Amino acid sequence: MREAPVTIRIFTFLAFFLLMSPSGLAQEVVQRQDSVLIIGQDSLLTKDQDTFQTGPQEAGPDSVPPLRVKPEVPVQPLHTGSDFITAGEILFLNNRSAAEILGARWGTVLHSFGTPVQNSIISAGGGLPGQTAILSNGFEMNDNRTTGFDLPVVLHEEIDSLEYIALPRSFLYGSENASAAFNIIRKGRVSPLPLTKIRYYEGPFGEAMIDAQFNKLFYNSVNVTVDVMNRKNDDRFRNSSGSIWSGRASAEYLFSEKWNAGVNYFYAKSNVNNNMGVNVDSVKSYALNWETQLYDEIAAPVNDYYLYEKITREQIEAIVRGRPLRGLYTTVNLYRKSYLREYRDEVITNSPMLTIDFIEQRSGVHIMQEAEFGQAMAKLSWRYEEATAKTENIRVHPAIRFLLPDYFLDEKWNIVTGELNYELISGLRAGVYAKMNTSGFNNKQGFGAELEYISGGLSINAGTSRYGQSARFWGAASVPIERLMTELRIVWSGEDFGLCASGYLLGNDVQQGTVIPLDTTVRVLTSDFIGESMSGGSFSGWMKLGIILTEVSVSLKSGNAAIKTDPLIDSKAGIYYSDILFDSSLVLKTGFEVKYRSSYRSKMYSPAFGNYIFAQEETSSAVTLDFFTSGKVGDNATVFFLWENLLNEEYYQMYLYPMPARGVVFGINWEMFN
Predict the structure, then answer these.
(1) Of 101, 394, 412, 670, whose CB count within 10 A is highest?
(2) Which is more confident, 478 or 80?
(3) Pair 187, 160: CB distance under 8 Å
(4) How far apart are alpha carbons 603 and 564 in whole angstroms?
């Protein structure tokens, strides 16, 4: 797979966006709104006043007088007690994709294939990969019941902030009862001047990404945003290249300070060569130094030279956001999304080309209502969704047909969630929440409670929940699953330090099932209940002494689970030079970061099943060292430089996928008010 040179694409994007509007620069727009906690432009804002004011700030001698425009009703986070990674923090993170931003949250483990086009796995709070709900502006992005959502297609430039939901309440969000939930809050720009943002990076093995966003306000009331991204890499190993195109076009009509309405269209197309990892057994048979041989990009054999996947996603949504009365916040979302995964293997023993098309379609309505009255706050959410899934265009040798899963679904979901929070005394808040999800395929339900105390820089959050499902798989008897989740989280921050610590206890009661393939269908026979418990915790802290910044993060996990999908220890620590230089023109963070993870039983990707399965062997422990620099130049540009794996460690993060050797990645994030 070869594409036009990156340089040509860059100049094409630059020419397109710079020709759309006249030259000139201005700084950020200020936005305020009355709410307990709202998402502003690239930052989290607190309660201030009842009116919006937007206008460009000074830009040197050619300053523009403030303009008053109609406001955008801002997006609210799902929960004020969540952990947040703001846009300002994201700029100084060692990240090249949305998966790495999620993985930067303490207590979250990132499993990567070492390429920017294959889907990384996120695991948090003891949850299995695939049990994580990915949300955008509070609405579920997961559109496939086996693989969830491919994070490489997320548009980097549309991410304002990241919200990590407390573990006990994560089951509330999404059609499945997820073990963890992340909410990507998109940027909301209402600017009197056209805005263009471009993010670009480039690394070894043809790794590159360009993401460009253009925003313009028409007639003081219609805000239009276009975002286009291309992410790609060339062959590192044989048959390991890939390319992703994704984009979003949205138009929002600003009725008034009380009501906005808009339409969003999202499209993503990926073409990924998936070699299913290096072939360890064949190398062992002829090479004495076989472990080193596997890292040789030229000589290392792979498991499948001819396998590739094409995935096409489309989603259209109509959204209304409003504040009909003081203390009320209403959101209505009508949506339709489709998912097509084309799996192809051109050469299989005793068989012609293997072909399978996986098709899913979902459509529905999601209404969220929030009401604040006195010391209390209530939230009610109702979602109705219809979903279908099937396989088409199947060509496979009959001898292996029975190994392939029947992939069908024709279901209707009714999902109702409710929350009630009350401030008992100043700084102490109590909350309860519940969910009921009914459908013909399976029923899910759960409830929980929490306490939160906030005083100055100290925040303590404790919660517990019990949730589960009663599932019927392909005509088999019900398979009840019950899960108990308890978490305690403490955050203490000051001007020059911050400490975060959390601990969780997870208990499962699962009725064990035996999967038996029968001709063209699959049956599940249930047996006795099995018990599973897991506990874990995480700690992170930072301290700034003058110009020296230190950071540390540790995640621990243990339990009697038969299958451990995360390492028992996953940690990282960094020491940086952090300063403001050149008369406040450069904000700099540069230094070294070391990472360690213990051995664990990894997962590997099965393209035929479209899912992750457990590997036969453990993935060994590893220590890596990176050098990272990020600098914000003025108010409009951020540059970053990463020299990763300085020690040239030969290691894996996913079974059969060696991580890249020492290499350099650099990029720029540039914002222009035109």
Answers:
(1) 101
(2) 80
(3) yes
(4) 10
